[in-house]
Amino acid sequence: SGSRRMPNIGIEAGTHLWSPFSDSGERDGETDHVLGAKLRNWFILLFLAVMTIETLVVLILLFVLPRPRPRNRSGPLKTLIVLGSGGHTAEMLKLVSALDKQMYTPRTYVTAKTDTLSGQKAITAEQSFHADGEAHECDLWTIPRSREVGQSYLTSVFTTLRAIWVAFVMVWQTNPDMILVNGPGTCIPLCIAAFVYRAFCVKWCDIVYVESIARVKKLSLSGWILYKARIADVFLVQWPDLVKRYPRAVFADRLY
């Protein structure tokens, strides 16, 4: 009849053809959902892997490797003092004021990076120890927090690893003979670093833990970790009831 026929391109009935007017946003949303689920799964696997490795390392350190013997010391002890916020700092500075300043020197104070007041209080306390009003034989270091308030547990894995890395560097550079702590979360990476160095016979450092006076019946989380893992060499408490529950603790009376 003279009319032109369209060629058969082999498209079956029911085949969906792409169109600029199709609902691509719905498909993009589904893709984002799948990608987010995969990322969460990878984060969970990474977290479990890190926890498994850390658990194996702790078990090896505790039950396989022999602990080095303490070296004979004569003279002053380089002391690393970990400060927390609020009551932790007040208690620790009260304890430091009673120390023999000639024996426990030089003193290195460590605070969290976000805690500026504790460092100022430490310097003020050191100035009061001397007649000339100057802070002698002391310095101040900061360490990142393992976990900030409100931070997700997923991202805290990476900040904890960063804090532990900084702690290893700090303990190596300051080379303390003793670490004095009383419970702030920032003390855990430092105590772990000192414990690992000692377990591998790299550096010997005594760890002295003084539980907060606020803990009457039960240990704080930091205290519980250091007690159960046997990381602290000396574990002091300020209430006698704690000794009944934790027999390796030593009652040292109260600071106040």
Task: Give the structural class.
Answer: alpha/beta
Total count of helical runs of at least 4 residues: 7
Radius of gyration: 28 Å
Task: Determine the N-to-C terminus distance.
Answer: 112 Å
Question: Which strand order do you get reading across the main beta sheet?
Answer: 3-2-1-4-5-6-7
Secondary-structure element string: HEHEHEHEHEHEHE
Beta-strand portion reads: 5-15%
The level of helicity is 40-55%
Could you walk me through the main structural features you see in this protein, from its secondary elements to its overall organization?
With 256 residues, this protein is an alpha/beta fold. 44% of the residues lie in helices and 12% in strands. The chain has seven helices and seven strands; from the N terminus they run αβαβαβαβαβαβαβ. Strands 3-2-1-4-5-6-7 form a seven-stranded parallel beta sheet, sandwiched between helices. Helix 4 (153-174) crosses helix 5. The longest helix has 40 residues, at 24-63. The radius of gyration is 28 Å and the shape is globular. The chain starts with 23 loop residues before the first helix and ends in a 5-residue tail after the last strand. Mean pLDDT is 82; it is low at 17-22.
Please outline the helices and strands.
Layout: H1 24-63, E1 79-82, H2 87-97, E2 107-112, H3 117-128, E3 138-143, H4 153-174, E4 178-181, H5 187-199, E5 206-210, H6 221-228, E6 234-237, H7 240-245, E7 250-251
Parallel strand pairs: 1-2, 1-4, 2-3, 4-5, 5-6, 6-7
Helix pairs in contact: 4-5
